[in-house]
Design goal:
It comes from Clostridium gasigenes. By secondary structure, the chain is α/β, with parallel strands linked by helices. It has two domains: about 170 residues, Rossmann fold; about 200 residues, Dehydroquinate synthase-like, alpha domain (Up-down Bundle), CATH 1.20.1090.10. About 50% of the residues lie in helices and about 10% in strands. It is built from 15 helices and eight strands. The strands form two sheets. The chain has a six-stranded parallel sheet with strand order 1-8-5-4-2-3. The protein has a two-stranded antiparallel sheet with strand order 6-7. The longest helix has 23 residues. The model has no long low-confidence stretch (mean pLDDT about 95).
Length: about 400
């Protein structure tokens, strides 16, 4: 286990009707905010009216910026930055899922940055200031962005999808009512389950030894997602299962499962090219890329892959054939993604193979990706090829 510092100051406000308290939570930080959200879903569900009523009751003035799309766009982030600056806003409220939260985080970062915010994503420039504080009302359990210190944005100019992070980017609070997820379509629910599962996998596959506690925490969280994703897809109004899934998404990405470990993150980077160009849902892209990555790198540490197969999918360990055990675990993961309705190949997602080299080139133009196994352009291209069908 390596040395580490752990800090996560996001306050979780979890349970039924907790969204009604948003005004009093926001009031602790500001009297004038930017309310950021996506399209019509929060209005169709009645959540928008509840948020507005709570803000007005708390005498909080708000300016709205809607229009966030999946794989949130840089152009809207820039629009938000100007709104925050022009109106001297000092708090941002994100109402939505990971895309809305990531867009709000990028606005909070860029509003206090002297240059173009994209430089912090594309060029890796350091930001020495503090982000504009923000809070969250979560409607889609998936990305875990409600308590994380990172954000991912897509630049429409060239289809580049890139990430950045900052110590002050974590939301001040996250309001989480599982009932707000009842109306999610099955496909969106499944994509969310895969997204949080993948966040755990990125941490699980590490070269760091003697991390038994966090191994077990990761394995338990993954088994919990498998069990409850199936329950939710059978009955979308199962509050207990929705609550388990919602909290799993937070735990998967709040860094508690990272303590003492060095994660990989190659699969996320490789998938970003897919969703950046083809605008596929991030969770669906991860369902395609992760099994392909696993097939490409499993020989690097067959013991860890066999452990994964046994502890997460109950595959019996064959001491005479650990490789076979490892491969069964990879196949079990792929079958789980299939079972919940996700594509597991590029062919399943109707994505052609004519831009694989371009994606591999873009992903590795600044060097190798991944920590478990460092991957160059040829490696990334081979993973895309494995993912074809």
């Amino acid at each position: 286990m390596i040395n580490f510092n752990f800090e996560n100051y996001t306050k979780l406000i979890f349970g039924k009707d907790k969204e009604l308290t948003v005004g009093q939570e926001v009031k602790k930080f500001s009297n004038k905010i930017l309310m950021h959200y996506g399209g019509g879903s929060i209005k169709n569900s009645g959540l928008y009216e509840k948020i507005v009523a709570s803000l007005k009751e708390a005498n909080v003035e708000f300016i709205e910026l809607s229009g966030v799309k999946p794989n949130p766009r840089l152009s809207l982030v820039r629009e938000g930055i100007e709104l925050v600056r022009e109106n001297k806003i000092d708090f941002i409220l994100a109402v939505g899922g990971g895309s809305v939260i990531d867009s709000a985080k990028a606005i909070s970062l860029g509003a206090n940055y002297d240059g173009d915010v994209w430089d912090l994503f594309e060029k890796g420039k350091n930001f020495e200031g503090s982000c504009v504080p923000l809070g969250v009302v979560l409607t889609i359990p998936a990305a875990g962005s409600e308590t994380s210190g990172g954000t991912v944005i897509t630049n429409e100019d060239g289809g580049y999808k890139r990430s950045t992070g900052h110590r002050t980017m974590r939301p001040q609070f996250a309001i989480m009512n599982p009932e707000l997820t009842y109306t999610l379509p099955d496909y969106q629910t499944a994509c969310g389950a895969c997204d949080m599962f993948a966040h755990i996998l990125e941490r699980y596959f590490t070269n760091v030894e003697n991390v038994g506690l966090t191994d077990r925490l990761c394995e338990g969280a993954m088994k919990n997602i498998i069990e409850n994703a199936k329950k939710v897809l059978e009955n979308g109004n199962d509050y207990a299962a929705r609550a388990e899934i919602m909290l799993s998404g937070t735990i998967a990405h709040n860094d508690s499962l990272s303590m003492g470990r060095i994660g990989d993150w190659a699969s996320h980077d490789i998938e970003h090219e897919l969703s950046g160009i083809y605008d596929i849902a991030h969770g669906a892209g991860l369902a395609i890329i992760f099994p392909a990555w696993m097939k490409y790198v499993y020989k690097h540490d067959i013991n860890r892959f066999a452990q994964f197969a046994n502890r997460v999918f109950d595959v019996e360990i064959d001491l005479k054939d650990l490789e076979g055990t490892a491969l069964k675990g990879i196949e079990a993961l792929k079958n789980f993604f299939k079972e919940i309705g996700l594509p597991v190949t590029l062919e399943d997602a109707n994505i052609s193979d004519d831009r694989l080299e371009e994606m591999a080139e873009k992903r590795t133009e600044n060097g190798t990706v991944g920590n478990f196994v460092k991957l160059n352009k040829e490696d990334v291209l081979n993973i895309y090829k494995i993912a074809i069908k």
